[in-house]
Amino acid sequence: MRNTLLENAFKFAHEGIVITDEHHKIVDINDAIQQITGYSRSDLIGSDPQILSAESQNKILNQTVWQSLQRNGFWHGEVSNKRKDGSHYVARLSVKRVNALGKVFYLGHLSDITADRKYRAILSDLVLNRNSHQILNKNRLENEFRRMSMIADNQNEKLVVAFMDLDEFKTINDIHGKAAADNLLDQVPARVRSVLSETDSIVRYGGDEFVLIIGGMKNHAAATEIIQKVLTAIGHPFVFNDVPMMVTASVGYTLYPEDSGSLDTLIRHADQSMYKAKLDGKSTVIAYDPGEEVQITERNQQLREIATAINEDQFVLFFQPKVTLSTGNIFGFEALIRWQHPQKGLLMPDKFIDQVYDTELEVSLGQWVICRALKQLAEWQQAGHNYQLSINLTAYHLSTSDFIDWLQQQIKRYPDLDTRRFQIEILESNRLSDLSLISNVVEFCKSEFGITTALDDFGTGYSSLTHIRVLPVDVVKVDQTFVRRMLTEPEDCKIVEGVIALAQSFNIQVIAEGVESIAHGEVLLAMGCNQAQGYALAKPLPGEQIKNFLANYEPFTQWCAQSDLLKNHKQARLSLFYFYLKHWMHQLQESLFAEPEIKTEWPITQIADSHCGIWLEKASYHHYFDNETIAKITQYHHYIFQSGNDLLASYLAGDVHASRAGYQAQVNTFESVLAELNSLIKRMTD
Questions:
Q1: How far is CA 291 from CA 158, 280, 295, 301, in A?
Q2: Which of 155, 341, 360, 584 has the most C-beta neighbours closer than 10 Å?
Q3: What does the pLDDT look like over 130-189, one tens digit per residue?
Q4: For the whole model, what pTM was predicted?
Q5: Residue 324: which domain range?
Q6: d(CA 199, CA 490)
């Protein structure tokens, strides 16, 4: 009887029910599915359930569904589907993994909610009356501007027209819900009016945007001061149902009559400035610069030139080699874009790349890079070379809706391509706002194609820690700014060491950019970083020069000689001190013997602020070595440091000859100290 009841419940349920096997093939459906989709039983049995999805259904969503089923055994959400007759509908779908008869099945419940969605949209428009609301707001703004501009003209004062946008407001909606978000928006006007005069005006312009008209201004300083008060007021918590919500705002403004266009023009100018405030870090205010119109015209001309350059194939790729430090093996290249301008010659990215951000050309240029890089990788593999090739793509490009579909189409052009040797470096990580979407893209690229992902310029953004924790990346690249200065700036050295340790704690590969000397590579190896790129190895090369570079390339023996440091932590720690001290002595020699007109990097003369001094303090605190070893290392350091400082003091006092002679007299002693340290390193065991 129970089986009969279950069969009837399955057959006559109003919800559509689909059962698939472990191979994602439909094995059973009920009558409701046929009514909802228009497909017959014979159409669906044995088919992939993707037959029910709309062509526009995001492949990333499909991937997310199956990943959730594998991890959690369940998925629930809304999907866009297509009936047999081609019409589209919105469905609520729940899928559960079920074990039965020793096999895995997937049980899906599907409801057509298209009518419900349309009803809600109509009801929402009736309640909010958005169109009428916007018209009323615009009329009100026009009336307020007309009234206040007349007062400003009569009293020889200026008028602020400001455009305010709440920063990351979507987060409020996601975390606290729509009701709380709407309530916050309702509270904003009163909050702003609390710091304005009664004659000033604030109007909600749309979404989370507001227009302010503020009178009685004398100059930009006064305008900025009052808007800063607005930002401070917005920064205080908003409370809904006893729950505090924090939000900030970005404001752009223009001053009438300095800017004497129509109200629409003034709002547009203020909006442009607000956008700049967003780019400058948000929660700030930017004034409109009338000269921007010229800048905008120039930028549009530049964008037209870039679009032409893409169409006419004026861009080229250069390739910078990447090396495994401990072996000297060249394992791959980074593809870097250049513009072979017909009049200006070869242009570096800093001459054009910023112009394309937040335009459709950002994607077009990224697509050009992908096409050329895949072609190059295919040619290398056909020639028997197994190099990795990485490209740079922006977070914005990765988050576009058709990125995965487009990438799949390009990869299909090379059926024999091993895409596991292809890597995407995510540029502009500070623009990574939708981490969940980027995470899905990264996971899809890896699971579908074996494409690895790297976070570029790691360490420069305040949210780097969040990115490495949330995004399933394979590699982090230490920003070259820190690496270049690590030998002369202890603070940069700390950042590099910290990034390497952080990456290792997440079991993520790390590569250092900006390696410009043998000493850079030695220090990085001692820190545990075994991959690098930079001018010490090679500058970015045109494609036709790679063969010649590889034919003449010889690994640096100094790096290869330190391969054991990756296995012996005590040797690595003491070697770090050794390399710091050796570089300090190198700086000392360069400073004493350089010609006066040649600028050199002066060694740090305060012992506690030096790389070695910081290392000794850390080693003592963490008890890296026994007290006798620490005392011996400290003695070596103090001797060289004091002797070197005495020579520098003599040099600065004007006795250049004596300081140089003194160095020559002590150089053998200095070298013997380094030899003693080196001997001590070799005796170290974990």
A1: 19, 19, 7, 16
A2: 584
A3: 333 444 566 778 888 888 888 888 889 999 999 999 987 877 877 788 888 889 999 999
A4: 0.62
A5: 300-551
A6: 56
